[in-house]
UniProtKB/TrEMBL annotation:
Annotated ranges, domain Hemerythrin-like: 11-132
Protein name as catalogued: Hemerythrin domain-containing protein
Family matches, as Gene3D superfamilies: nmb1532 protein domain like
Length: 160
C-alpha cells in the first residue's frame, strides 16, 4: 500500500476501512474471552470504532461524495444509497455511545454495525471506487489531500 502521502482518495478511504476492520476483529476477539476483564477493553474499542467511523463518514460526505457527484452525475443513486447507509451507521453509533458498559447488548450492536460497515465497504469498493477511478476530471490525489486535511482537523477536534 502506498504511503499516506502518496495515496489517492480511494486508497486513503480503503486504508480507513481496513483500520476499522482490525478494530472490529479485536473487539470480537475480546468478546469471546470467558472472563469479565475484557469488558473495559471492549468498551474502549467500541468507542474507538465509533470515533473512526464518525470521522470517516464525515470526510466522505463533505469531500469525496460531492467530488464524485460533480465528476459522475449518473452516480446519484449509489451515492444516495451510501448516504443512507451512513445514516443507519450513525444511528447505531449513537446507540453504542449511549451504552455505559460492554455487555451482550453491546456485543450484538457492534456485530450489527460490523456487518453494516462490511456491506457498505463492499459497495464502495465494487461500485464507487471504480467510478471515481474512471471519472474524467476527478483528481483523486487532490481529493486525498483534502480528505487527509479534514480528517486530521476532525481528529484534533475529537482529541481536544
Amino acid at each position: 500500500m502506498p504511503s499516506p502521502a502518496d495515496q489517492d482518495a480511494c486508497e486513503l478511504l480503503d486504508a480507513d476501512h481496513l483500520a476499522v476492520k482490525h478494530l472490529f476483529v479485536e473487539y470480537a476477539r475480546l468478546a469471546m474471552l470467558p472472563s469479565a476483564p475484557g469488558a473495559d477493553a471492549r468498551h474502549a474499542i467500541a468507542s474507538k470504532i465509533c470515533d473512526e467511523l464518525t470521522v470517516h463518514a464525515q470526510i466522505e460526505e463533505e469531500i469525496f461524495y460531492p467530488a464524485l457527484q460533480r465528476a459522475v452525475p449518473d452516480a446519484s443513486d449509489i451515492l444516495e444509497e451510501a448516504r443512507d447507509e451512513h445514516r443507519q451507521a450513525k444511528d447505531m453509533i449513537a446507540r453504542l455511545r449511549g451504552m455505559e458498559e460492554a455487555d451482550a447488548a453491546m456485543d450484538a450492536l457492534v456485530a450489527e454495525l460490523n456487518w453494516a460497515i462490511e456491506h457498505h465497504v463492499k459497495e464502495e469498493r465494487d461500485e464507487l471506487f471504480p467510478k471515481a477511478r474512471s471519472a474524467q476530471g476527478l483528481n483523486l490525489e487532490e481529493v486525498a489531500r483534502q480528505l487527509r486535511q479534514r480528517q486530521e482537523a476532525l481528529q484534533a477536534e475529537m482529541a481536544a
